[in-house]
Amino acid sequence: MNKQYSILLTGAAGGIGSVIADYFAGNGARLLLTDLNTTALDDLAERLQKRHAVQPQIVAANLTSEEGRKHIAAVAQTFRANVLINSAGYNRFGLLADINDTDIEKIFSVNVLSPILLCKALLPWFTTQESAHIVNIGSTFGSLGYAGFASYSASKFALRGFSESLRRELADTGVKVHYLAPRAVRTAFNEDAVNRMNVALGVTMDTPDVIPGAIAYMLKHGQSEHYIGRPERFFVKLNALFHRVVDKGLSGQLATIQQHARSATDQAHTGAKNPATKEI
């Protein structure tokens, strides 16, 4: 990397966040890692120290609380962060009628309100910098609404709109805003029903290591938006222009989606594996 980045990474202990941390630690970045899980953060910091001989700074805090965000923002200023990567996220797979209100509220709290409010808390610091970056990790589903992910898609649509608006709002500053849209990502936190559905539908699932390289490219080249996957980029453009064509095309998948979404709901009701952070 030509420029040393001082990165504040949220959701750092997750399946995607930890891969992002590993990549940038290996490329000379300074890291401030935050997550709610203190033990997982400590383990991640130890792995990075052993593998890359770096000592990242960690801060365990709740992004969904005002106190947590204020604490993170204060530490980030002392750390002299010049990059914020909003990687923390939450999903609950299922038909809207079957998902409880608490999960819907959490989806929007983690995926939308927390990154918006953390950005707001950091702006007084970032706008004093000659150059700073905000990277919001969204999803293909932030441009392509998909059955079984109604609340999640809506949250990522909101994050994409926020990223676009903030980019234009900060056009006369040194702060650049980037939006990255991965397609399905294979992590240990995926619900089994999602994995089974993706296999049944022939959906391509990337490994998490495609994410950090895309982020690095965006930072280096000033790319505002990037969608991972050529077919996904095509369908995003097609959906924007001819959404009824996409409606018709996806309708053939509905029965399969419903089957696996109901399976996920049944698992949740029986206390089986619950979703965690940042899956799609």
Question: What do these coordinates show?
Answer:
- With 280 residues, this protein is of the alpha/beta class.
- It is globular, with a radius of gyration of 18 Å.
- It has a seven-stranded parallel sheet, sandwiched between helices.
- It has ten helices and seven strands.
- Mean pLDDT is 90; it is low at 273-280.
- β1 (6-9), α1 (15-25) and β2 (30-35) form a beta-alpha-beta unit.
Shape descriptor reads globular
- Give the amount of beta strand, in percent: 5-15%
Spatial arrangement of strands, main beta sheet: 3-2-1-4-5-6-7
Quickly count the helices.
Answer: 10
Helices and strands: which structural class? alpha/beta
- Estimate the mean pLDDT confidence: 90
Which sheet architecture does the biggest sheet show? 7 strands, parallel
Quantity of strands, as a count: 7
List SSEs in N-to-C order: EHEHEHEHEHEHHEHHH
How much helicity do the residues have? 40-55%
Q: Which oligomerization state do the chains in this entry correspond to? A: single chain
- Low-pLDDT residue intervals, each spanning 5 or more residues: 273-280
Report Rg: 18 Å
Separation of termini? 28 Å
Summarize the helices and strands and which ones pair or pack.
Blueprint: E1 6-9, H1 15-25, E2 30-35, H2 38-52, E3 57-60, H3 66-79, E4 83-86, H4 101-126, E5 132-137, H5 150-169, E6 175-181, H6 192-201, H7 210-221, E7 225-227, H8 230-241, H9 243-251, H10 254-269
Parallel strand pairs: 1-2, 1-4, 2-3, 4-5, 5-6, 6-7
Helix pairs in contact: 1-7, 3-4, 4-5, 6-10, 8-9
